[in-house]
Amino acid sequence: MRIFDPHIHMTSRTTDDYQRMADAGVRAVVEPAFWLGQPRTNPGSFTDYFDSIIGWEPFRASQFGIRHHATIALNPKEANDPRCRPVLDLLPRYLAKDGVVAVGEIGYDSMTPAEDEVFAAQLALALDHDLPAMVHTPHRDKARGTQRSLDVIKESGIAPERVVLDHLNEVTVAAAREAGVWTGFSIYPDTKMSPERMVAILREFGPERVLVNSAADWGKSDPLLTLHTGEALLKAGFDEDFVDRVLWRNPVEFYGQSGRLDLSDVADAGPTFAGNSILRGGS
């Protein structure tokens, strides 16, 4: 089983996790910029963080045979802190980097006016830089937050197939599918989605425009829950091709839209986006 985890925060994981992931078949990951738990007090903190996830972390991953890409953004939670607002001015420099395959995570935390402004501004940056967007749906009031996110996405003019709406569940998946965006599901202990629930969703809705991730971070999480979801799908009677589509070909297709997805040194990488081999810088 080959696995591409399209949303995992490896800066908060250990090298032992990288080894376990490699042993489990994880060959590629995307790390979205996110809140670190401790509030950041100035834009310089973000500069160091962004440099780390596009520089040090890809090197660390490569030691275990894993390709690492990133998404860059001012996250929704810190969008409410005026000390962080100047980060928006830093983003264009990072969104031009080869290893950056989307703008994200963006979206809502508490659905404040400040979050409205920052969300819209970063969707505009995605359009300006011809990048896909990863949108975080809020953990509270998820149904209303999902619909509000879809409204903002529609207003922005970005093509729905270039957006993944993440952290969805049984209540929100139908609206996202109807809107034509990619549907993201975080297999995360206790708070988001389990492998068994993911099997039921895939049985009902199919594998089209579905991304399954672990969202593993500094919380109670498990970077092998993508593997466990694949195992649960096989146990439920889905074939290996179905599992490969969900856990590998779908994230390759979504992030391949950036023109920057580089899987050139991944063993058995197989086809990339639209039958083309997409190397660094879109060459």
From TrEMBL:
Gene3D superfamilies assigned to the protein according to its UniProt record, in alphabetical order: Metal-dependent hydrolases
InterPro entries per record: Metal_Hydrolase (IPR032466), TatD-like (IPR001130), UCP005295 (IPR012022)
Keywords tagged on the record: Hydrolase, Metal-binding
A Pfam family of this chain: TatD_DNase
GO MF term list: hydrolase activity
PANTHER family linked: HYDROLASE TATD
Assigned protein family: Belongs to the metallo-dependent hydrolases superfamily.
Protein name: TatD family hydrolase
Source organism per UniProt: Paractinoplanes ovalisporus
